[in-house]
Amino acid sequence: MGKFSQKNGKFSKKMDNFLNGSELNVFLRNLYPNKTADHVAADTGLNASQVSKWLNGHSSPGYYALARLIYTYGPDLLSVIVPQCDWLNEARMAEEKRCLDEQMSRILAKRAALEGRS
Prior knowledge:
Elements: H1 3-7, H2 9-19, H3 22-31, H4 36-44, H5 48-55, H6 63-81, H7 86-114
Helix pairs in contact: 4-5, 6-7
């Protein structure tokens, strides 16, 4: 085993657990409790039958699929893989704040329209 593998054994084990389904499965099913594979496929552009195979433990995502998942679900998904990473937790919180700001802007615009001040 090379230096990288020895030093990063915990990360490798965590990634294996993630890719082999348990953590990925929980993450995706928490997002979409019903028709999980269909929703994930719609979000990512991946094949629903392939996503279903991951969810059922018959296969795990390859590099391209993992990249699509990370691109789509961002810091929230990455924090499942690397839970104790300060910069990643900061990125996750920044993303959550951004989403809340967008929601607040939409709500304030609706309120202004109801008050006749669009």
